Amino acid sequence: MTYLAKLGELTLKGSNLHEFERLLVKNTKDCLKDKDVQVTLHAGRMYIDCKEEDFEIVEFTLNHLLGITGWAKTRVCEREIESIKQAVLEEAKIQAEKGCKTFKIEARRSFKQFPLNSYEICCETAGVVEDLMKVDVHNPDCIITVEVRERAFVYCDSQTGCRGLPVGCSGKGLLLLSGGLDSPVAGYRMLRRGMKIECCYFHSYPYTSEEAQKKVEDLAQKLAYYGISTYLNIIPFTDVQMVIKEKAPEAWSTLMLRVCMMKVANMMAHRVHASCIITGESLGQVASQTIENMSVTEHFAEYPLLRPLCGLDKEEIIQTANFIDTYETSILPYEDCCVLFSPKHPILRGKVSDAEEIYKNMQVDELITESYKNRVIKKFNFDGTVEQISE
Ligand code: ATP
Ligand code: MG
Fold first, then answer.
1. N or C, which end of the chain has less CB nearby within 10 Å?
2. Percent helix / strand / coil, the chain, rounded to 5
3. Is the C-beta atom of 294 inside 6 A of ligand 1?
4. Are 92 and 128 in contact (CB under 8 A)?
5. Which atom of ligand 1 is nearest to the CA of 330?
6. With a 6 A CB cut-off, is 342 part of the ligand 1 pocket?
7. How crowded is residue 309: how many other Cβ atoms within 10 Å of its Cβ?
């Protein structure tokens, strides 16, 4: 069997096309390393030839691969009408066994020298199916597709792909990943634009539990299925939080926490050569996410601060969280920040000048550097393995 994947947006990208295609093939091979598969590319289609034992992993790969609009498992046959009819018949038998009563043939012929045109291919092949199912061009139970290209392909059940651009074509971003709903979705949004992401999680043990960290690790693994691999940097942040509690005005504590996170994020981004910082903030979602407060956080970021969810509402975010299978993990009860540190009346419209003053008074720079240095790094791979990295 051969899997056929349709390339998405890539086909629009003029001179960069080859680079994108090369990356897509490389990413696919990386996902399927150690497997006995052949990945090839031809005229806007990618083909994966594999053995039956690898069907499952190949389909998992295609369901997570960014840069394809759809895929199908196909029968490949000679570019010759008798072989095509035979393949259509075999496919039709399977569909009839599944309970399909009506069918339609869709034929495409990009190999123009083929003696029959699309309409004629439909007529010829429909003939062999009619003993098994009835034709219904308006509302068929199954559509059997025939594509005559460099080879001939016959398939049913084409699946939609994730679309987007192949990961790695848009540089690297540093994602601030909490255990909540939003940040994993923000990460996925950027992955989908071709950006490789590295993650950073601020952990305030024992105020935030080990379960909270485990949740973030599970989310990082889910992102690794789309990003092929991802690093998670776990930053011990208890000491910094204690200083914020002690020295910042209570109303400012959440905002100051974000500011301190930004300070570490700057160091991290520099260290891993990320060109931007990504958060899951969405305008107006919570008190810390007013435009004024977002400007305060932004002021302390030394890299472009991307907020891909900025204009989305919760429903839209949840939809994507369900799609990427992070929803169930994200809604587990373990909080990523402790109520002990959450002000009753948080400041709604922080001023940058006040923030600078408060930050200076906290004298927390050294502790921040310390927390950055004490980070624990884990690498999550596409195959589900995790590596502890030491620097
Ligand atoms: P999320 O659902 O992603 O947790 P949220 O709606 O809870 O977001 P906030 O708690 O205000 O919003 O956090 C805003 C953003 O700051 C998060 O989306 C995330 O990018 C970052 N962030 C917050 N807490 C942490 C943390 N403990 N570690 C890493 N990043 C964090
Ligand atoms: Mg949160």
1. C
2. 45, 25, 30
3. no
4. yes
5. 2
6. no
7. 25
The token pair that represents 119 in the structure block? 């309409």
Q: Is the CB of 188 under 6 A from ligand 1?
A: no
For 47-94, the pLDDT digits (tens) are: 999 999 999 999 999 999 999 999 999 999 999 999 999 999 999 999
Q: What are the tens digits of pLDDT across the range 204-235?
A: 988 888 999 999 999 999 999 999 999 999 99
Q: Ligand 1: which atom is nearest the Cα of residue 258? A: 16
The reply to whether ligand 1 has any atom less than 6 angstroms from the CB of 184 is no
Outline where the chain has alpha helix (H).
17-31, 55-64, 81-97, 118-129, 182-192, 210-227, 238-247, 253-272, 291-300, 314-323, 327-330, 352-362, 365-373
Ligand at minimal distance from the CA of 289 is 1
What is the b/e burial string over 66-96, where b = at least 16 CB atoms within 10 angstroms of the residue's CB? bbbbbbbbbbbbeeebebbbbbbbebbeebb
Note the pTM of the prediction, 2 decimals.
0.93
CA distances from 220 to 71, 73, 157, 382 (A): 26, 29, 31, 11
What is the C-alpha separation between 39 and 161, in angstroms, rounded?
Answer: 17
Q: Which of 134, 146, 11 is nearest to 72 (CA)?
A: 146
- Ligand 1 centre distance from Cα of residue 183 (Å): 6
